[in-house]
Every structure is written in structure tokens, then in C-alpha cells.
Design a protein that fits this description.
Blueprint lengths: L2 H13 L13 H4 L13 H18 L4 H10 L16 H7 L2 H7 E4 L19 H7 L2 H8 L11 E4 L9 H13 L5 H14 L5 H11 L6 H6 L18 H7 L1 H9 L13 H11 L5 H22 L5 H19 L24 E9 L5 E8 L5 E9 L5 H18 L4 E6 L2 H9 L6 H13 L4 E6 L6 H10 L8
Parallel strand pairs: 3-6, 6-7
Antiparallel strand pairs: 1-2, 3-4, 4-5
Length: 500
Amino acid sequence: MERKMYLKIRENFLWGQKGSERKLALISWEKLCRPKSAGGVGLRDLNAFNKALLAKLCWLLITNPNSFVATILKAKSYPRSNIWDAMVPNNSSYTWRSILSVRELLQSGTRWVIGNESVVADWRTSEEDSWDEKALNVLLTEQEFVAIKNCTLAESSQDDFLSWKYKKIGEFAVRSAYHYEMQSKYGTIGSSDLENHRWLWNKIWKAEAPEKVKNLVRRAISNGLTTMVNLADRGINVHRLCPRCGEGYETVLHMMLSCRESTILWHLSPIRLELNDWPPDLFEWCYTFARSCLIKKSWETTMMFMWKVWCMGNIWVFEKKKVDPVLACQRTMNYLGEFEMAAVREDAPKPAAIQIIQKWQPPERSLDKLNTDATMNAEEKVGLGMVIRNDVGDVLISAGRPICGIIPAIQAEAEAVLFGLKYAYEAGLRSLEVETDCLNFADLLQSRARMRTPTQVIVNDIFDIARSFDFCCFRFASRKCNNVAHNLAKKAIHLDQMIL
């Protein structure tokens, strides 16, 4: 299907067009495609989605260089270089041009995870475990240089690999690439104004109010209501004066707040709203008012009365009927009460609680047990702790050490397990049960799933050293069963060197 035809069908569906009849598009398609947290309704942006799909193809060519398609494309298009440096000759196919067009998106969303340093070998000196500081200072900022120096280098033989920054497991996903492209395109990250917008939009969508009310408030704040001013601005032959009070131009702000008929309703409502200084726009008023709401349900009540003002205006314009404001106020509160009652659901019966062992358990006979933990304090300093006990509970080895740099929690847990395994092996222990109180990391070790993150480098080293044991298994233990290792890790944070 051609792109133009697809766009036409999509827009006709949204605006409700019938035959030759055309309805007004009061809010641009670009704004509707924005995420809900940015004032849109989350409709799919075709261009951004297409770039995300192309980025997936480019990712597969990079991460699976031995695949049939990647081999053919490399032999034809970039036999003496890599895909990052590949040129785009004039006779290139449309498909190849499209794939290469998203390299910037892929570069900005990926990072290299260092394994055997095959990719960054030029940044290393001949001296062992030493970076070429002159080269790095030219290429990187001081903050990036410190981060590079704190990188965990693999101890086993493993290649460097690409990691996608916007997924925890580091694997590229079209969905995360699409959201990243939308954020880059519409600038939904950064300034305080954008944060204010995000806060208010989230406040609207998370409100306990009917969906049609939320949608009406969204349209009002986006200036997407069919007021007389908006109709006149789009070439409709109407007068700009408010049809209800005739005292001013009917903008969205006038209709919602300053119209004489609306002020009566606001005064009778539980909000008891009286405005002396009019805000510059409806968004500013909604943001300020929502921030000042201290009473429960006051924001939902405000949204309901905004919806009621709109309904009363429509009844006057189309039916020439004036609604009694006292009756309108009563019906609005009844409607909100009915909605809240309908939203109440009986709590589902809670499943029987699973009994969790709350005490350290000794390993099976002839085995030793290694407990590890990592902890981080408010200054983001990390400490590792480990303790090894035999089958009667006697402590064989206990140790703790601090580590430099800011790292994710799961990576710190991996460092703790590797730290404990090294000491167990050096002490001559060969049959070991390993317990960690990080459930996600325990599941990762048990399933042997692969991630494309720096944690995977440490996991590979863990599996490499585990193969040197006669027996080695990994299990989860609750924090109460892991108190000794946890306390050692907490003490290690404040040390300059390892304790044993």
C-alpha cells in the first residue's frame, strides 16, 4: 500500500469523514502522534516506526555478521569496511540506502561493552591494564574518560559487543527504538517546561474520571474545541463573539472560565472557583490549579465541571436551551459518584502466602555454601561481601571489598558472586552452592539467558570459573538468610581496600 494512501485512510478514519464531507482537523496529526505524556493520544507515527524497523535490520546485520543476508550485503556493498563506515554509492538500491539512513539513530542508542578489547585496542597501551590517556583525552570528555577507566574488563576470552541502551537486557527492540525516536523528534525530554507539561498530561490521564472527560480536557488544553474563534480562524463564516454571554470572543479559555454562564456554574460547584486575574491560557491555569489541589478528588471534580461547561455550551448552540446551573451542578456530582461506584471492584481473594525460609540453611553434606551480596549507599559507593560456610555452619572464609564507579544494582550483585567464586577457588574448595539475595540475578544464572549489557561480561566470567569446580550451582536466598554477606558488604563501603 502506498504511503499517501495509508495516510489518507488513517486520517479519514480519525476525523470521521463520510464521502465528500470533510470535518475539521482542529489538532494537527503531528500532535496526535505524540505520546500521551506529551499531549498526544499515542497514535503511530509512520515515519518514526519505519525508522525503528530499519534500525532493527541494521542491528541484525551488525550483531549477526555471519548470517546469509549479512554476508551477501557485505560482499556487495562494503567488502573492505564495516557497516558504520560503508559508503552510499549512486547506484545503491533503495533498500540499502534506507538501511544506512538509520545509522545515526542506532549509533546514538547503542554502546560498546568491552570484552577482550578487540574494538578499542587502539585506546590501550602495551602496558597491562593501562589506557592510552592521550588518545582518550582527545576523543572523550573528562566524565567519559573516568567512566571508561572504571569499565569492568573481562577475565575470560570474549569479544566486545554492542548493547542497546534503552532496554535493560541490552537487546534491540523496535518498541524502545520507536519511543526513542519520538522523544528525539518531539523533544519530550529535558527542560522544566517540558517536565511541567508531562506532569499535567499524566495527571489528566491518571485521573479517576470517565475517558470521555479526560479526552475533552485534553482537547481543551490543546485548543482543539470547536469554539467560535477556532471556527472563524479556519474559514467558517461565524461571528467570533460568545453565543452564550455575548461579552467577549469565544476562545477555549473564555468558554471554560470567563464566560458569565460558566462562572455561575463554577461558583455553585464544590470547587467554589472565583477568578480575578485571568491566566494567559488554559494550560497555565490547569497546571497551577492541579498543583494546588490538596483535597482528594478535587482535580477529578474540576475535570468533570470542565466537561459540563462544554455540554451546556453545546445545548445552547444547537438546541437554544439554557440549563439550570443548580441542576447541572447536581447532575455532574451524581455522574462522578456513579462512575466511582462502578469503578469499585471487589478485591480478588489473595493466594495463600508461600512460606519463605527465614533462616540460613546449611548445604548438603560434603558441600560448602557461598553467600554473596552487594550494597550501595546514598553517595552511590558500592561494597561487596561474601562468606563461605561448610555443612555444619562453620565459617571458612569471609571477606568484603569496595569497588569504584557507579554501576547498576544487578551488575554489583554479579561482581559480588565473581568475587566470592575467586576466593573459593583459590582456597581449594571445589564443591559449592552459591546463594544471592537478588532474585533477578539468580534467575539469570539459573536460566543461563544472555544479555547484551556489561553485566553479561561478568556473568561469562562467572560461568568460566564455575566450570573449574567439580560442582557449582546457583540459588536465590532471602535477605534474612543472607545477613552475614549483607553486613560485610555494608562495612566494605567505608573501606579503602579489601578485608579478609
